[in-house]
Specification:
alpha+beta, 3-stranded antiparallel sheet, 16 strands, about 25% strand
Amino acid sequence: MLRLIFLLLFPFTVSAQLKRFEFSETKMGSSFNIIFYHTDSAEAMSLSRECFVFVDSLNTIFSDYISESEVGKLSLLKNLTDIKVSDELFSMIVRSKDAWERSGNTFDITIGALTQLWRKAKAEKKFPTKAEIKAAKDLTGFKNLIINERSQTISFKKTGIRLDFGGIVPGYVAQRVIDLLKTKNISIALVDASGDIVMGDAPPGKDGWTVGINLPENENEIWDKKLELKNIAVSTSGDVYRYTIHNGIKYSHIIDPKTGYGVTSQRNVTVITKYGADADWLATACSILPIKKALALAEKEHAAILIATLKGEKILTYKSKSFYKYFQKKQP
C-alpha cells in the first residue's frame, strides 16, 4: 500500500441541504478514506457501509495477507494446472499481464515469493541471503504462469509461485468505489486507498480537490505547490514509510523483479491518469525504471508524471509537460 499523498481538505457545510461526509476504516492493511457530499446523514452513513462492505469483498479476493482469500488459497493448492478462478481475479490477472508487457516486464504481479521473503526478513530483522533471493526470483515472471482465456483458468509451471496485487489493486478498488458511488447519484466524491486516490467532481465552490505531495525521504513535509484535481486518479510511490536498511543502504518495499531486491534510488514518483489501477501500476513501474524510461512510459500511456529524487541534500525533479496543468492555480 502507498501512503505518500495526503489530503488538504477543509470540512465545511455548503448549505443546509448539501453536506460533506468523511468516513475512514482500516482496509487492506491500511487507512481507507471515503469522502462525498450528500443531503442526508443517515443515508450517507448507510452508503458508506455499503462501500466498505464492497471493499471487503474485493479484499477477500486479492489480499495476499489473508490465507483465506482467493489469492491466498492459490498458494496452498497442490494442483497447479487448469485452476478455475473468479471472473474478478481472472480479469485482474489479464490486466496485470498487459501492464507487465507495457512496462517492459517491470510491473509484475508474480513477485509474490519475493514479497513474502522480504516481509519475513523484515519481521525477523534478518536480511535475505543471495541464495534466498535467487530461489524466490526463480519463481517470478509470467513465463511461469499460463493464462487460458477460453476456459478462464490459470496454471503454474512451478510449485511456490505466489501473486502480489499490491501495486495495482488499491487504485483499482478506489476506482470501483467511485464508480459505485456514481450509481447512487453521488458525483462529488474522493476515495483514498492509502495514497492511491481517485476522485469525482470537484467539491462545491472549488475548482478541484486539493492534494499535497510528500517531499522525497520526508514523512511530514510537502511541496509548496499543490495539485488541484477532479474526475481523475493520482498515485505516488516511494520509500518514506516502508523500507529496510542494510549495511547503510535503504531498500524500498518496491521490489525490482529483475534483481529481486528493493529499489535503492531515493525517489518519489507521482502519476496522474484517468483510472485508478493505471495510476497505481504506473507509479510502481516508474519507481523501478530509469528516469528517462519512466518519463517515456508515462508519455506513452498518456499519463502525467512527476519524479522527485535526492542527490545529496538537493531535490531534483523531472516532470512531463502535461503535469504542469494539474498544479493549483489559486492558493487558498
